[in-house]
Amino acid sequence: MKKVLVSLLVLALAMTSAFAAVDFTGEVVAGYTFQYFNDEWNYHIMGQDGIDTAPIKINVKAADENGYWDVTLKGALIADNRLGGNLNVDLGKIILGADSDLSIKLGMYANNRVTGLRAYTNQSGLNLDRIRTYEKGLWASLSVAYSDLVSVQVAGGPRLSKGDGADESGITDDKWNTNWIGDNNADFIVSALVKPIDGVGISAGYVLNGENKLGSAVDKGSFNAEASLDLGKLLGTDWTFGLDVADKYSIGDKTNLFLASVYGGIDVFNLALEYGLKTPETGDMVNMLYVGADINVLEGLLLNAYFGAADLVKFSDNWYVGANIGYEVYDGITLAANVQYATKGGSDLIGGDISEGSVKAPGFSITPKVSVAF
Known about the structure:
Radius of gyration: 22 Å
Number of strands: 20
Largest sheet: 18 strands, antiparallel, barrel
Order of helices and strands: HEEEEEEHEEEEEEHEEEEEEEHE
Shape: globular
Strand content: over 45%
Number of helices: 4
Helix content: under 10%
Low-confidence stretches: 1-9, 165-178, 352-359
Mean pLDDT: 83
Structural class: mainly beta
């Protein structure tokens, strides 16, 4: 696996020299999470995707300057089976020309997920509205879009079979008993997004299996419908005021999740509130709440705070609160720290989803970290 990763990195670097229109971007995030829970301290690595994740993640993209094709490699280079990529060929622009508003992309996603198109702006960062394919896999996709007005995406793939456990010489070895992607399920996803005017969006989607979010069943699929309205964009003002709604239904366990968020502000201050109502076929309804505030008083300064609960009725066992502070000391170099306290239920909701220093276990935590973006 390491030889494969090294080869891909060498290929990516070679592509930056071979093609004129190439973006070479990446980010390194590294730090520690010091966590106090049950009268003891625990120590974790803070990586790109939160606690106990790889501290190095890189994105490499090569694209034709006319938009005819693009190739992307992305993932954590030091974690097994975390490097993925995708290839897109735009038949619409190839046939009609680079200036055409019509895009018809054929794509392949390897070791990655395909996420449905979304109108919901996800102000909380919790991604509760999202539908996407089940785990990592090899997915074929077709995306058709006309300008920014309308986009339709269809993607999927079969369940991949493993090898027979024998290498080229006939010697049986467990390392050959693999498809190199993982034991992924078959899946299918379709979604559409319409933006009739700037500031207004409507989307809908369906996934055959999909990810398990909030304990919903994944064997019979789920679908969602979303709408967003940003009056600031609609009126062309310097301030922002938006309203989003989304509804997601899990067919397998007949669980419905309704979401609504209100957000707004000016340059120096922004506030977002998200409310969620989970209604299972059996059991009690669950009311969720997220409140977040960003303060932008100085260029390069990161300063925000958040508070919420995974279940308002059982608030004492499901709340969380936290804050982030950081500063970009040089172009792309940021020093930051997160301070957070979460109960068990609160940490189950936010763990791994809030990008700035979230933890997957309850208790008090302090996370100093450094990031370098290039």
